[in-house]
Request: fold
Amino acid sequence: MSNNLFDFGMVGLGVMGQNLLLNMADHGFSVIGFDKDETKTAALENAATPGTTVKGVPDLAHMVEQLQSPRKVMMLVPAGKPVDDVIASLLPLLERGDVIIDGGNSHYTDTLRRVQSLEGTGVSFMGMGVSGGEQGARTGPSMMPGGNKEAYLHLKPVLESIAAKVNGEPCVAYLGKGGAGHYVKMVHNGIEYAIMQLISESYALLKHAGLNNDQLHEVFKSWNEGALQSFLVEITADIFLQKDDQSDQHLVDVISDKAGSKGTGKWTSQDSMELPVAVPVIDTAVAMRTISGYKDERVQAAALYVDPQLGEFSDAWIREVHDALYFATILSYAQGLAMLHQASKELAMDIPMPEVVSVWRGGCIIRSSLLEIFAKAYGQSPELPNILLNQDVAELVKSIEDNTRKVVAKAILAGVPAAGFMSSLGYFDAYRSERMPTNLIQAQRDYFGAHTYQRIDIPGTFHTEWGKN
Reply:
């Protein structure tokens, strides 16, 4: 095997790196991986399917010299300096036409910097978002590559083979120039934050109404068999069945309510403000994870204020919460996709929106039956600035709007926290308003700061000496 020329190389043989290589090998590609930890190189070879060509080496130069030209080398190492260090180690070993792929969760600005720094070397750099977790990497992930389009053509046969498939179509596509791949993955993760927050609020609204874990399992299981079908709703149903192996309780009831995060949701929120594009459900999801960390203060506050009081649950309440979750999930996608549309123009990334929703249909964490509806909308209008402007989406939203308002009103009156639902409805009401009250804000800004304003009847820019009447 040592004399073979390998099709694909991987730097970093953690679970994700190992599983992607094994996936490639299962699809007929010869693969080689590098890791300084020889237990990982051995684990890679031991996990290979009999008859496939898989090799692990502890020497980077040894890996590179065994790759076919043009060499295709993917990195799955922690974001930040480790990525730059690997690039610096690889460059002296590579030749013109070779391709480096960063498959980690790098910030798109770092990816753009790396693309630009390698220009002139003849070596192409691509940033690629990978979603689906460990299992997805092994059996079919969703992949979001961006950067040099010619370089993508070298990767396409491998990536299309290992990607998740929906109706026979691979969940991978070239998603634009520069840092587009990691930008799309960043927004994907922001939408993921939002939907997870909304599901947790649905859980709270049902639990406060008296549903136990077995009933919650049945509710989410039935939801996943209908319009709300999605990976996150599916795993939520499973979670309610899991028993704790250290007590006689359900595991979900003994898990701390301090939520963790790796920062990608925060990046989405921060970068949306730079564009600017409004993504308030994502902003709220990030804020709620932050508030979850105030555990000691929340315990003190709970003793000072009245407990939430929701009435007994009913079939009608379950339907209303279902519709509110559906409504707010649509709004979460709408905000994230609007952000991608705007960023594509502002940052000259040329992100193809039909391909984005197509790639997300399978393999990834936010895969959902809703994406088929969005794919149809972008098929009709690829440059749609917001999916809420599509007639079919509008009819769907209007059909569940009333129940969403009922849920938000009941949550407010009962004192059950439902900030994600509230922000989705607030965004919707503002977005559908032909005239907002922000004319008053413009008057205030001009009054105290001479910031000027525009009029609705006369073109131009104006300033008034206020209070002179």
Q: What stands out?
A: The mean pLDDT is 95.
